[in-house]
Amino acid sequence: MSTSLMKWPSAFFPLAMSLAALALALGCVTAFGVVHRADEGTAAQVFQLLMAAQVPIVALFAIRWLPRSSRRALPVPALQGGAALAANAPVIFLGL
Q: Which domain range does residue 82 map to?
């Protein structure tokens, strides 16, 4: 993967946001266990905001870089998607 493209904020912010969401989910599970509440807590809302805010940033990266050099740029959205899947894995598998 081209490290020069990873220097762009539209490339690394979604990765950082996914890692923050993963850390938030795992931190809550570690601290409080798997708790099912009728009302979503603050952690769930922050998780949702982190995940939803990535969509326009990833779209901006794709619109800007994929037409210019798709071969160099294609691994970045793939990495961003993998990080988003990793962040959602605890939510899916633990039923949070």
A: 3-33+43-94
Segment 45-72, tens digit of pLDDT: 999 999 999 999 999 999 998 898 888 8
And the tokens for 46? 């922050």
Residue 60 lies in a domain: yes
Structure tokens of 84? Answer: 């988003």
Contact between 73 and 51 under an 8 Å Cβ cutoff? The reply is no
What's the pTM value of the predicted model, to 2 decimals?
Answer: 0.86
